[in-house]
Amino acid sequence: MSHQGTPRAIRGTKRYTVIGTRPPRVDAPDKVTGRAIYGPDVVLPRMAYGKILRSPYAHARIRAIDTSQAEALPGVYAVVTARDLGQTTDRTAQVGESSVSFKFLCDNNLASDKVLYVGHAVAAVAASSPHIAEDALKLIKVDYEPLPPVTDVLEAMREDAPLLHEGMYTESLAGPSEKPSNIASYFQYLKGDPAQGFAEADVILEREFRTATVHQGYLEPHAATAVWSPDGFLTLYTTTQGSFDARAQVAEPLGCPLSKIRVIPTEVGGAFGGKNISYVDVAAALLARKAGRPVKITMSRAEVFLATGPTSGSVIRLKIGAKRDGRLTAAKAELFYEVGAYPGSPVGSGAYCIFASYEIPHGQIDCYDVVVNKPKTGSYRAPGATQATFAMETLIDELAEKLGMDPIELRLRNIAHEGTLLVTGNRHRSIGAEEVLRTTRNHPHYKAPLGGPHRGRGVALGYWGNWGARSSAMINVNEDGTVTLTTGSVDITGTRTSLAMQAAEVLGLPLENIRSTVGDTDVMGYSDSSAGSRTTMATGIAVVEAAKDVITQMKARAAQLWGLPADKVIYERGMFRANTPDGIQEMSFAALARQASAMGGPVRGKGDVNVRRWGGAFGAHIVDVEVDPETGKVHILRYTAVQDVGRAIHPGQIEGQIQGAVAQGIGWALYEGYVYTPQGQMLNPNFLDYKMPTTLDVPPIDVVIVEVPWPEHPFGVRGVGEVPIVPPPAAIANAIYRATGARLTELPMTPERILRSMGVI
Amino acid sequence: MRPFAYEAPSSIATAVDLLAQGGERARPLAGGTDLLVQLRLGLREVDWLIDIKRIPELRHISYDPNEGLVVGAAVTCAELGEHPDVRRHYPGLWDGAGIIGGPAIQGRATLGGNLCNAAPSGDSIPAMIVLGATCTIAGLQGTRRVPVEAFCIAPHRTVLRPGELLVSLHFPPPQARTGACYLRFTPRAEMDIAVAGAAAWVCLSEDYRRIEAARIALSAVAPTPLLVHSASAALAGQVADERCLAEAARLAQEACQPIADVRGGIAQRRHLVGVLVKRALRGAIQRAKGELPHD
Amino acid sequence: MALVWIPSLLRDLTGGKATVRVSGRTVAQVIEALEAAYPGIKARLAPEGKLAPGLAVAIDNVVAPLGLRTPVEEESEVRFLPAVGGG
Amino acid sequence: MTERVRVSAVINGEPVEFLCEPRQSLLECLRDILGLTGTKEGCNDGNCGACSVLLNGRLVNSCLVLGVEIQGQEVTTIEGLAHWDGLNLLQQAFVAEDALQCGYCTPGMIIAAKALLDREPNPSDERIRAWLAGNLCRCTGYDKIIRAVRSAAAALATPRQEVSK
Known about the structure:
Strand content of chain A: 25-35%
Number of strands of chain A: 29
Strand order of the largest sheet of chain A: 3-7-1-15-12-13-14
Oligomer: heterotetramer
Radius of gyration of chain D: 16 Å
Largest interface: A-D, 65 and 59 residues
Radius of gyration of chain A: 27 Å
Mean pLDDT of chain D: 94
CATH superfamily of the largest domain in chain D: Beta-grasp domain
CATH superfamily of the domain at 441-464 and 617-761 in chain A: Aldehyde oxidase/xanthine dehydrogenase, molybdopterin binding domain
Distance between the termini of chain D: 62 Å
Low-confidence stretches of chain A: 1-12
Strand order of the largest sheet of chain D: 2-1-5-3-4
Largest sheet of chain D: 5 strands, mixed
C-alpha cells in the first residue's frame, strides 16, 4: 500500500498538520464493539413489527385487496394498503434536486392500480412479532389480473411490447412520442459530424455490449422505525444516505408538512447509492399511525434484492473510428438502459462518462431510458458509468491491439485535458486524466512479467463527474475549548472523520478536541444526500466555512477582551495574538473559549453552502488474471488502482474506499447479475446465487493516490468513492482477452460465457 | 416460518419414537444449515423438529484400521476435520466435507445432514459413494443398512421412511494403493455451490501402473448424486494413462443428466463433468501412489 | 449576447444550427428569445412554464440550481442537458 | 402463537434465562429478546456471516441455530469481547488498520477472527482469507481486514514472548 502520488502528479503541494494523516476513524470504537445503532437495531417501547406483502407477479392489475382476515388475526395491530395514502391526481413532487412523479413515488411504496415487478409492495401489516406479521401477510387476499411482462430492454422498446404505463409517452426534446411507449425518455448528444469523422478513420470498430442488473449489495437491509406523537408529529429512524430526502419522500405521499417530520438517520450499514430512495419509510409511518404505536420494518435479504433499487441492466452499441496513429476521429454510442418499473435510469450519467476520457472531434450519443418489469433502479456508485465504460474501454483496448499500440500509449494520445469539449457539450475543467495515466504506465505492475501461461493483463481508464450541492455545518465551541462539529450529511464512508480533519486543520486544534456528529432534520439545515462522492468535498466546504466563522467570532471576543478592533487579532495554531499598547497579548483557544460565552453568548460557527462547481476525477486500473482454459474460471492475480483524488484528506479511508469499489467491480465483472425467468421471476434473490466476492476472490489491491487538487475546494478535494468502480469490468475483460483470445462483451463474464467465447462449449 | 414444536431426545430409541409419532410432519434436526433455511422459505413444513445432537451415538467418530471409520450422523464437518484419522486416512472424504460452507457452516453442518438433505449438489455425497460408505438407519423395527449410493432417490428425497433416523455412516478401512479425490466447480473460489462435481476412487496394481478397480461419482448433474457404473467399470484393468482417463470422462459425460438452471447450463455442466472426472482421477491416482499431500 | 448550444433534437427548429446567440438575463428570457426566433422551441424546452421533466440547464458549465430563474451573463454559454445524479 | 420454551444458557459469561418460540433463531433471540443488537442479520441463510457468534467456543451463524438449541450452552457475542473501558486486541487492530467502513459486517468479522486466533495464534494471510471466506464485506475489499487480523495475531503473540523470556 503506497501513498505515492508522483512528484509530477502533485501540483501545488502544501504542508498540512492534519490533512493527509491517518487518524483512527471516529465511528470505529462503536462499530467494533457492536454498539453502533443501525436501522434494524432501533428499539422503542411498545414497538410493533411491520412486514410487507409483495407481488408474486411481474405485471398485473390489482382488482381488489381483502385484508379482513389479516386484521382479525390476534397480535395484528394494523394493515395498510395504497388506499391509506389517499392519493388523488398526479403531480410533480420534489425530492432533492430531482422532480419525480407523485403517483410513481406513491405507487412504488404501495401499489395502487398495478403491480409492475415481482416484489412490488401491495400491503403492509404491523403485529406484535415479526412471525405474526408474516402469518398475517398470508391471510391477505389480493385479486390480481396477470398481464404479460417484459423484462428485456430491447423487447420493451418494440411497438407491440406490453405497456407498463398505458398513459406514458416518450419524453424527448423532439417532442413526445405519438403513441404510448415503454421508452420513458430519449436524448441525443451530437458534436461535429460523426459521418465525416468515420470517413476520416483508418480503423473502425463496432460492437454491442450487454450488462446485467446488479445490486449494491450492502449488508444492512433497509429498516425504518416510525413513531407519531398524539399531536401529529412523526419521528422516523431510518437507514438512509440523506435524511432530508427521506423526509421529503415521506412528506409527499403523506401530505404532511416537512416541519412535522423529524428524520433521525441511523448508522448506515452500506449504501453505495442504494439508500437514497425510501422503500419502507412510508409503510412504517402509515402502520405506526394506524396502530397507534411505534412500528419497525426491516427488509429480508430477498426483499432487498426484489424490491429496492439495483442498477440498470443495459445494452450498449458502440462504434469508434481512429487514424493509424491512434488518434480518434469519431465515436458513436447508443445507450439502452433498463430503468425498471418507473422512469429515471442513470443513462444520462452513462452518456456523460462514456467518452469523457478522450478528445473526440466528432461524436454522437443516443440515450434511451426504458421501463421494464423489474424493480425501479436506483443509484449504484457512479451510476451509469460502469456499464458505459465497460463498452468504451473494451473497444479502446481492441483498437490498441488492432493498431499494435500499447494500450496506455493509445489512451495518452487521445487523453482529455482541461478545456476539452466533450460530446455531451460540456468542457472539462481542471482534471488529472493524463497524470493518472502516466502514473499507471510508470507503475512497476505495468511492466512486471506475467509469470505463467493462460495469464493476461488488462488496463482501463474510468471517469466520474462527482457532485457538489447543498450542505449544512455547525461548530459549537464548548467551554473547555473543545468543539462539537455537526453536519446534516449522513456518514456512509467515514466522513465524520474526514470532515473533522478539515475542521481541525482550519481551527488549528488537535483532532481529538473535535467531536464530529451527524445532526437530524430538526437540527441542521437542508443537506443533500451523501451521494455523488460529494460529502468530503461539498460538506467539507461548509465545515471550512463554519470553522472560519468560529475563528472570526473568537477573534472578535479576543479583541473585545483586549480593547482592540477585531482585525488586529491574528489566530495561529490554537493561539490568538495581538500587539496591544501593553505589548503582545496571547491567549489559547481553550482559554478564550472558557470566557467566550459569558462575554457575548455562545460561539457557534455555521457554514451553509450550495456548491455548484465540482471536480470530476479519473482512475486507471491494471489487473492480471489467470483463466483456467478448461473451466473458464478467472483467478485475479494482481490488481493496482491509480486514482486522482484531488487532495487525500485521510489516505487510509481513501485506500479502503478504492479497494472496496474494486471488489464490487470484480463482482460486477465476474459473478453478479439478476437472473430472471421469462415471467419476470428473479431466480437468485440471495447471497448464495447472487454471488458477491469473498475474501478468496479479491486479491490485495494496491492503491496509488494521485493528487491534482481541485481548485475550488480549500484543500483541493475532488471526491473518491465512485470513480474506482468504473474501470474494473473493462480492465478485467481486457485481461481475459489477453489470457484467452476471447473478447467478452456481456457482464457478468461467467465461466460459461468465457468457455463459449473461447469455443470450448 | 410456520410454528413447530421442538424436542431434543438423548437416545436413539426416544428419537425414533418421536419421529414415528410425528410421521411426515416430523423431521430430525442436525446442523440445520439446510433445514432451517428451507423451513424459512416454506420449501418444507414441519410440526415437530427432533434435535438429534444430544444423542451420544450420533456425535461419535471412531476409527479402527481393521473396522474402518464410523461417523455419527450429527458429527459436524468441523469435528470431522479435526479428527486426525479422518484427514489422514480419508482425504477424499475431507475433500467433500471440508468445502461445505465456511468455518461457521462447518461448525454446524453434518455429514448426515448433507446426505439426508439429498441435494443433487451435496458435496460430501459423491466422496462417500466412491469410498463405499454405508448408512446405518434406525427405526421402530430395528436397524437396517443402505449403501450411500442408494440413499438419495430424488432431489431432496431419500429412502428414509417416516419414523426412521440415520444413525451413522460407515467407511471401509483404507486399503494399500487406493486413493480418492473429490473436486467441484464453482464460479467463486469457495463459499459457493457446485455447478458440477466429481469424485474418484482408484485401487492401483502392485506396480502402480494399472487401475485394478475404480469408482466415479458425480454431483449437481443428475437428480441425485450419481455413481457412474459405466465409467467405473471401464477403468478396471486399464493402464492409468491419459487415454483411459479420457475414456472414463467420456462415459461420465454420457451418463450424467444435467439440467440448465441459474447455476449453469447443460453444455457447460456436461463439459465440466469431463474436466472434473479427469482431474479427480488424477488426484485419486496420485493419492494412491502417495504423491499427493492429504489435504 | 449569450451563446446557446442547441441540443441536436431541437435543430430541426433552428435550421440545423448548433449554436445561437440570443439576449436574455435569465434562462426564461433566453428561451423566450429563442421562441421568438424559432417558434415551437419553447414548447419542447419549457412547457407549462418550467423546464421539461428530466431536463437541466447549465450556465458556463455549472448546472444551474434555479432552473428558468437562473441568471445568464452577457457572455454566458447556455446548455440544455438531461438531469443526472450520483450514487 | 405457539408455546414458548424456557431456555437457560450462559451468554457472554453471564447466566441468562429467556422464553422463546421454537421457530425463533438464536439471532432473533439475541437481538429481539435479549437486546444484544451487536450481532447483525445480513441474509438469514448462512451466506454472509454478519450474525457470527461463538457457540461453546465454536464459530456458528446464529441465524442457523434455533434459540431453543442453546439450552445449557455457552454463547459469546461481540458484546462479550470488550469492557466499557477498552477494546480487546482484535478490536484495537480493526480500528488501527482502518479495517472497516460501514461496520455492519465488523462484529461478525471480529468474532470469526477471534475463533481463528483462539485456535491458530499465528495464521498465514492465506489461512486468514480462507477462514473469513464466509464473512462478506461489501465496503473494504477485505485487504485491511486481513491486515488487522494479522496485526492482532502479532499483538497477541508479543506479551507471551515477553513472559517466556
